[in-house]
Specification:
The complex is a heterodimer of chains A (637) and B (258). Chain A is α+β, with helices and mostly antiparallel strands and 637 residues long. Chain A has 16 helices and 19 strands. Helix content of chain A is 36%, strand content 14%. By secondary structure, chain B is α+β, with helices and mostly antiparallel strands. Chain B has 2 domains: 112 residues, Roll (Ubiquitin-like (UB roll)), CATH 3.10.20.30; 132 residues, Fumarate Reductase Iron-sulfur Protein, Chain B, domain 2 (Orthogonal Bundle). In chain B, helix 3 runs antiparallel to helix 5, helix 5 crosses helix 8 and helix 6 packs across helix 8. Classes of the chains: A alpha+beta (637), B alpha+beta (258).
Amino acid sequence: MQLDGKTPSGPLQNKWDKYRFETKLVNPANKRKYSVIVVGTGLAGASASASLAELGYNVKAFCIQDSPRRAHSIAAQGGINAAKNYPNDGDSIWRLFYDTVKGGDFRAREANVYRLAQVSNSIIDQCVAQGVPFAREYGGMLANRSFGGAQVSRTFYARGQTGQQLLLGAYGALSRQIGAGKVEMFTRRELVDIVIVQDKARGIIVRNLITGEMERHAADAVILATGGYGTVFYLSTMADSCNVGAAFKAYKKGALFANPCFTQIHPTCIPHTSDYQAKLTLMSESLRNDGRVWVPKDSNDNRRPNQIPEEERRYFLEEKYPSFGNLVPRDVASRNAKEMCDAGLGVGATGYAVYLDFADAIKRDGKDVIQRKYGNLFDMYRNITDDNPYETPMMIYPASHYTMGGLWVDYELQTTIPGLFSLGESNFSDHGANRLGASALMQGLADGYFVIPYTIGPYLATNGVSDITEDHQAFRDAAQKAMEHDQKLLAINGKQTVREIHVKLGKIMVEHVGMARNAAGLKQAISDIQSLREDFWKDVKVPGTASDYNLSLQKADRLADFLEFAEVMALDALERDESCGCHLREEHQTEENEAKRDDDNFCHVAAWEYDGYGNTPKFHKEPLVFENVKLTQRSYK
Amino acid sequence: MTTTGEHTINITLKVWRQKGPQDKGRFETIPVQNVETHTSFLEMLDLVNEKLTHEGKEPIAFDNDCREGICGTCGCVVDGVPHGPQKAMTLCQLHMRKFTNGDVIAVEPWRARAFKVIKDLMVDRSPLDKIIQSGGYVSVNTGSPQDANALPVPMEVAEKAMDAAACIGCGACVAACPNASAMLFVSAKVSQLALLPQGKPEAAQRAISMVRAMDDLLFGNCSNHRACEAVCPKEISIINIARLNREFIKAGFASEAV
């Protein structure tokens, strides 16, 4: 298969304009004849549904939650980037583009990233117009902060609830279209299959989570905005319902899955303490703006942190990276924390935690200022741990948080299945091997508000209105197959719960496919995953029936996908015999323990094609061409 | 009673079980041994569900998602109080250290005329979405706005709007209200948008439409009990209800908005 990214020719700055001028438009009067399915109502899905409906398309939107206002985008705390340069500190579209490509360790497509930076400013305009209450300066202008390693202040924020406020803005726009009858909203639905007719995506099968019924929905195009796969690690910062299912079902239907091994581990989470734990809670990265990360110099130091004098502390990020200090990128911060803990210097109950200390910031700025900036985060920390971070340092440790890999899409955000598009975290396109802080919200909204409304046009205009309905045999077959799959899971009646097997999978993934990887470990992981998968199909216990709300059954279906997907992830990590961004292969490090890329052999997107259950997927490459930036070795010293 | 360790307690759950909207429902008594006090309330329910699953019984159905207090999915009435005994907190953030050994804990779904029980502790909160659909937004199409800084908003105003915008739409206010009113929910959105210049052009119509939708969807009226404010996990103030009342009365005088 020849992968064509469909990047427009010409100078980088003109590509998006050129694309928009040269593509076929759908006549405004004809738009109402087309219907589009959007799965997911996070930032990408809600903004896409609203924007497409505003243009006149008939949209059917689906979400797994009980309301479109609850997708996991809501949990993003820190902020959203844009190249507004309001603070006059040297930012520009070019700088945001460059930082993003470099942050992704040169494993993303230049043209996509440039477009992202270009539309970033319109996102802020849009959100402000919707009434998103961004933080303001006294004069009434929008406030900005520097975030996650950026040397300019380009991050807009709404206290520690930026994701929530942006999502509620998009939800408002979506609600307006639902009220107007242009969007038909289906809640508590989970995608179980994509229906392909004559090689094109023509609809979906969804499980009605309340009744268990398999519902059939046809449309002229299908958009997946279904988020990432961080819960493959079991413990992560993701919400309970986050899963790889929709993307994986697309993969099984022929869409390629790109760079699955690129997963981000967030440095500032509340550490894991016990096995009953259901999730790890993220503390916004913005905390690193004022908090100082340290461990005791002596591994046997059991004193309370406040009793350890300054000279007996090791501020390892500040020591090792004098210019960036505590603001080094996420992967660097995470890896260094792990290194300290592996060396026995970690703190807390498990020894897998480091301190994040605000004593100096409180002394410098006063408690009031710190409280205004981080009050809600401090409260959250205090409630979970029973510890007061105003008085004693926080303890933090890295956790799975975001996945850069996803469905392979071209410049139009179309997968390798014609008529199937993928937006936001569910695609692979913009972040390369590592995502910068405050860029996830930007990408989700860029895809939904400002990219897909243009790029879906040519497909629809070329293919015309479909006359395929839900009664087509392909829909009946897919629904039937999904029901049989349920019956198979219910019939196993083994001894282990879904959760128990998921915990085991998580352990394999954290151990071998987590922050640092090596060939032997990855091979081990692949064989462990295979045998766990066999265990699952022999020994899982799913009580209840398929004709009711059955959470065990829903979760068993999701875990079945993860047990196949995890192997693709490990395989991808093994195949990528270099380090880049978040993907650290222990065999390939610089003297400073930084990821050492191999641009001669791995400057490409790895895209995997499903080849039947249990078979090794087929490997495809999309070479990455850099015409505008020079590939450099990252150094944050 | 079995003995407990330093950080574990034994409790008894009286939990509401209801097969579906038509079923009458009943309390089921479930003793739970050796609950670690660092566990969250929902993690405790997870463990109960694991046990039920092993016994081949159906787990307790309850809504939850982010488990960090922001998505608004979770919520049950615990010992008579929506989201449980801890102030300004969603149920997912409640920890078992707030309970003592031997406690009997009653767990029920939100009870309100507008919210039907779906199963056990899950209710249908879609009427809240319908209220938003009736006008809880600024009518602005994608692509049309001016530059974000063209419209200054004083910091105090932005902060007040943010206070109101913090609503997570969990429905605890409705569950707590003796009239099962959604006034706090409606007032939070009306206030956020009425305070900001972006929301002013539609302020009158918004107040009227949203209140009308609330009435149509079988929510009750506000009679100033303040139970909503007391249980709100985001501490949304009833000042917003006063503001909604002002907006609503103002709108009544603007004839074109009625």
